[in-house]
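Inverse folding, one chain.
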């Protein structure tokens, strides 16, 4: 085993271990909240957290991914690394404030936020803490220090589930507001801890900068818009349509299955987090073999997980949510099919970014958004939560086809071009 393969295996293993812990915490959180909140309040919890995490992509606006790419580049000295971190921090602060301001209007005016306006606005502060933590994580990823990244991610999950369990243990109940405040607190603690760790690793300061922001933004903007588009068709549109057309109960039922789905698909994200800095350093003539090996691994793992979910869906849903969430079983089985496409989409998407094809990736993502939007508009009124799940499968499948065709053409036409 060469040094590169050993590093990839080590980093993926650490993230896999962290993913196991986070998955256990996420399922435990879902178990506690579905049992004590009920379907409707759980639906509101899913709706609020989905909205906040969706708008976080606007606050990040691609800076996290581009920061990793810049820091992981060859011949980047310590001074340049500090400059990159300061540029990323400045943009994150600007976009976080813009995001929070833009969120106020819809929350105060749209009927979907009726009775949950104040707690939604308070929960939106998670955006600031996630922006800070992901800045530190970008540094860890670029330096292939996935142990630190995993610690802070899993720490947030552990704090959240322990906080929820403590409240239930003491009072034998928990409210929607308490659950969301615990979520906010866990994000704050993990963010502060990650930044402290970052300052110990490098001479990083919180001083905003102006130089180089335009160039940085030029690279991050296509990725940022693509991330926002992905967040919209990943869960945002589904939840919004279900909340509007059917109500909070539908969001709750669909949200439980989708929460399991998103936790399972993060295995692909962790694998690609490890592979991405390696891809950045390679000339594209070496990519076909790397992509073939990565694709076979992701395909095999995705198929195994998908089949497992199809078989165990009734057990998993009943264990977490109970009989009240029975309709979510079919949804989970449908979404398990999307896992196969989703795993491979992580490979094609990260590779396009490494090749500098952010704009092309954005165009393909906008096409997927249009498919998802039209599909939900047509199928949710007729088929409810099952229709939303099938639209997710179709969307992921369309992304794999378009990004796969692009990469095949790109690598054939430019086999020796150095990645920049």
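Residues assigned per position:
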């Amino acid at each position: 085993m060469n040094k590169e393969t050993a590093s990839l295996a080590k980093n993926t293993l650490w993230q896999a271990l962290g993913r196991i812990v986070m998955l256990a915490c996420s399922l435990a959180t879902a178990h506690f909240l579905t049992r004590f909140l009920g379907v409707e309040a759980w639906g509101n919890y899913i709706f609020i957290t989905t909205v906040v995490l969706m708008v976080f992509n606007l606050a990040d606006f691609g800076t996290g991914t581009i920061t990793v790419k810049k820091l992981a580049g060859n011949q980047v000295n310590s001074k340049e690394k500090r400059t990159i971190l300061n540029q990323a921090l400045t943009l994150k602060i600007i976009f976080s404030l813009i995001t929070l301001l833009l969120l106020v209007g819809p929350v105060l005016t749209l009927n979907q936020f009726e009775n949950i306006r104040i707690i939604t606005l308070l929960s939106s502060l998670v955006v600031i803490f996630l922006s800070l933590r992901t800045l530190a994580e970008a540094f860890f990823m670029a330096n292939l220090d996935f142990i630190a990244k995993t610690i802070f991610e899993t720490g947030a999950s552990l704090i959240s589930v322990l906080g929820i369990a403590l409240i239930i243990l003491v009072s034998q109940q928990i409210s929607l507001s308490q659950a969301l405040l615990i979520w906010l607190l866990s994000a704050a603690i993990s963010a502060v801890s990650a930044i402290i760790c970052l300052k110990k690793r490098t001479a990083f300061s919180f001083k905003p900068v102006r130089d180089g922001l335009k160039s940085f933004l030029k690279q991050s903007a296509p990725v940022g818009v693509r991330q926002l588009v992905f967040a919209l068709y990943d869960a945002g549109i589904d939840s919004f349509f279900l909340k509007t057309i059917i109500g909070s109960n539908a969001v709750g039922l669909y949200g439980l299955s989708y929460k399991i789905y998103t936790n399972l698909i993060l295995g692909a994200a962790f694998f690609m987090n490890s592979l991405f800095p390696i891809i950045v350093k390679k000339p594209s003539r070496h990519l076909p073999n790397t992509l073939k090996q990565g694709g076979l691994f992701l395909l095999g793992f995705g198929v195994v997980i998908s089949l497992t979910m199809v078989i165990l869906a009734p057990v998993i849903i009943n264990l977490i949510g109970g009989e009240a969430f029975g309709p979510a079983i079919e949804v989970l089985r449908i979404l398990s099919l999307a896992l196969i496409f989703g795993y491979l989409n992580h490979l094609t998407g990260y590779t396009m970014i490494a090749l500098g094809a952010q704009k092309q990736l954005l165009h393909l993502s906008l096409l997927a958004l249009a498919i998802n939007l039209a599909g939900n508009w047509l199928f949710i009124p007729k088929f409810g939560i099952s229709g939303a799940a099938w639209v997710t499968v179709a969307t992921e499948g369309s992304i794999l086809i378009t990004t796969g065709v692009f990469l095949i053409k790109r690598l054939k036409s430019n086999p020796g071009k150095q990645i920049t």
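The chain has one domain: 3-413. The two ends are 27 Å apart (CA to CA).
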